[in-house]
Inverse folding.
């Protein structure tokens, strides 16, 4: 069986790491499969949202397969995509991680690469590679501070602490927590909603949000305005406004109930 499986579900592409026997850890072949899948998704105009998950119910991804670590620096995609096949790539479209178990080391970097993270209640997160002196080389030191703030990122990076889904949500690393076995279904639900929105403005807003961290605020606001105006001619937006005028008010997706609120 393929180490990376790709499935199309309408406008949604599902990328599944398929090495459950090693907690979906990544070797050279898997890294190339990840890069190929992201490239294909990015170039396919009919594919709008990418969902990333792991096979089985124990792990999303436990990081690099350290028994084959040398392969990660010698495969064909390493220079353009990064050792695990994703760090330097941006398909220009939304991605959602369905975290169905252990999300550790490079697996945490893969989840951080995604725009949104949906975690099952038994998921655990951590830079546990700290125990062996293995560095983060797939974007973790750059993306984690942007997602959870510098102090939380350094807590994870320096201590090597392994945290549960509720702690990850409190940090802002995880956006929603769902029961065991439900992360993929929830990610698909959100992906299908996202894919159904008028597209030009969504892609515009995503790009400007991601660029906000390396642009001064006034420059970012000007860029947002100038590029945003160009999306106003999007036919999908015209159709959406016509539906609004006609009284169409679909309910937006809402987060699931959080037992921590009780």
């Amino acid at each position: 069986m393929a180490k990376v499986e790709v499935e199309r579900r309408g406008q949604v592409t599902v990328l599944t790491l398929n090495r459950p026997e090693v907690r979906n850890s990544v070797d050279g072949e898997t890294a190339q499969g990840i890069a190929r899948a992201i490239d294909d998704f990015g170039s396919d105009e009919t594919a709008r949202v990418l969902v990333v998950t792991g096979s089985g119910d124990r792990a999303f991804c436990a990081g690099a397969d350290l028994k084959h670590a040398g392969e990660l620096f010698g495969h064909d995609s390493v220079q353009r995509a990064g050792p695990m096949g994703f760090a330097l790539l941006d398909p220009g479209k939304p991605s959602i991680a369905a975290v169905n178990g252990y999300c550790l080391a490079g697996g945490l970097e893969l989840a951080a690469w995604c725009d949104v993270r949906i975690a099952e209640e038994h998921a655990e997160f951590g830079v546990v590679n700290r125990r062996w002196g293995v560095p983060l080389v797939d974007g973790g030191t750059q993306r984690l501070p942007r997602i959870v703030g510098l102090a939380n990122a350094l807590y994870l990076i320096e201590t090597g602490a392994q945290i549960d889904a509720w702690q990850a949500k409190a940090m802002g690393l995880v956006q929603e927590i769902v029961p065991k076995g439900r992360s993929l279904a929830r990610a698909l639900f959100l992906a299908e909603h996202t894919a159904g929105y008028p597209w030009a403005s969504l892609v515009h807003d995503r790009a400007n949000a991601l660029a906000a961290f390396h642009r001064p605020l006034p420059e970012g606001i000007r860029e947002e305005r100038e590029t945003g105006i160009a999306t106003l001619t999007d036919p999908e937006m015209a159709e959406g406004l016509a539906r609004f005028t006609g009284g169409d008010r679909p309910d937006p997706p809402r987060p699931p109930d959080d037992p921590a609120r009780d």
In short: The first helix runs from residue 28 to 43. The chain has a mean pLDDT of 92.
